[in-house]
Design brief:
single chain, mainly alpha, Arc Repressor Mutant, subunit A, 0% strand
């Protein structure tokens, strides 16, 4: 059975940086780090996009800046959900309290 390898974000970033910053070829990096060329090309493309400020869609960020952006976006979504719950609870309580005193 062929198990799919998983790599840490740091490993992906390091491998992509060798291509982008050290001008090594994809083949050289693949051979030295024992990774497939398809995966490396995908990481290089993703890191290139992240460095230009584009958030990855459907993938976990590789660069620390984009990871932080993803974390903050998730926090904003959580806080918005909490605010919606509080608004609904407040509206429910207000309608309940006015109904009792009529």
């Amino acid at each position: 059975m062929n198990e799919r390898k998983t790599y840490s974000r740091e490993f992906k970033h390091q491998a992509a940086s060798l291509v982008l910053d050290q001008n090594l070829s994809v083949q050289e990096v693949c051979e030295s780090m024992d990774i497939g060329p398809t995966a490396l090309r995908r990481w290089v493309d993703q890191v290139r996009k992240e460095r230009s400020g584009q958030s990855p869609t459907g993938a976990k960020a590789i660069t620390s800046e984009q990871r932080k952006i993803q974390e903050l976006e998730a926090k904003v979504r959580r806080l918005e959900r909490h605010a919606d719950i509080l608004k609904k609870a407040t509206a429910l309580l207000m309608s309940d309290s006015t109904g009792r005193f009529s």
